[in-house]
Design goal:
single chain; alpha+beta; eight-stranded antiparallel β-sheet; seven-stranded antiparallel β-sheet; globular
């Protein structure tokens, strides 16, 4: 067998192995999405804003500020980048809540992607919320009593994290676990905002970054075709 033919067969074998390996990696390893708000406009394929009244948002200097100036206003930002109904999923956010925010700034999972609505009680569509306004803070869980876990006082600045793992959900504040409970509702949407209702909440939160990870989260994966062309070029140069 000539050296050129042997090299050709080697390339074919390598290409097959690379294609299979990269395909396996892309489906078997959790991907990560990091939003740092480098663009002045939100990516509409990833985020959707639902606002009521005079609520608004802006991106400046790599920070997203969500504002609900009065009790008649409300704003929620939904993640649209992937489905999160059955797979493990982790969200982490670094944020600052403005002093005077009326117990409203929130990171939450909800059964249906509702806009902020006029409601004087906790809507049963909500599954899990973290309220981090200046009145008090903590994770609230939709069980018979809306159980609360976490800090007893205000948490105005830090990193909040929730990790859905199998049949459980773990909640953290600044890397400290503050709540753990069973996942009782698989269908869920993830949202962020300073005001879930338009009746008696108002305030402002500024987000430095949001990190999401999970098997279905899109990421800049290795391009198998590009990788193969690199291998082929290296083999040809050796012939």
């Amino acid at each position: 067998m000539s050296s050129k033919r042997a090299a050709f067969l080697l390339v074919v074998c390598l290409s097959t192995v690379i294609s299979i390996s990269l395909g396996w990696v892309s489906t078997a390893i959790s991907a990560e999405y990091l939003e740092e708000f480098d663009d002045k406009n939100l990516a509409t394929n990833v985020w959707e804003i639902k606002a009521e009244g005079d609520a608004s948002y802006k991106i400046e200097d790599g920070q997203l500020t969500l504002t609900s100036p009065d009790v008649a206003d409300g704003l929620l930002m939904y993640w649209r980048g992937s489905e999160i109904d059955t797979e493990d999923f982790t969200v982490e956010i670094k944020a600052t809540v403005a002093l005077g925010t009326n117990n409203a700034a929130v990171i939450a999972f909800i059964k249906t992607d509702l806009p902020p609505i006029l409601n004087s009680t906790i809507n049963p569509e909500w599954k899990t919320l973290v309220w981090c306004g200046s009145d008090n803070s903590g994770w609230y869980i939709n069980d018979d009593n809306w159980s609360r876990a976490g800090a007893e006082g205000p948490e105005l600045e830090g990193i909040w994290k929730v990790s859905i793992e199998g049949n459980g959900i773990l909640c953290y504040f600044n890397d400290e676990e503050v709540a753990a409970f069973d996942k009782v509702q698989e269908d869920r949407f993830l949202c962020f905002g300073p005001d879930t209702y338009t009746s008696h909440y108002s305030g402002e939160m500024t987000i430095d970054w949001i990190k999401l990870s999970g098997l279905s989260v899109p990421s800049a994966a290795v391009d198998p075709a590009k990788k193969l062309s690199t291998v082929w070029g290296s083999v040809k140069s050796a012939l």
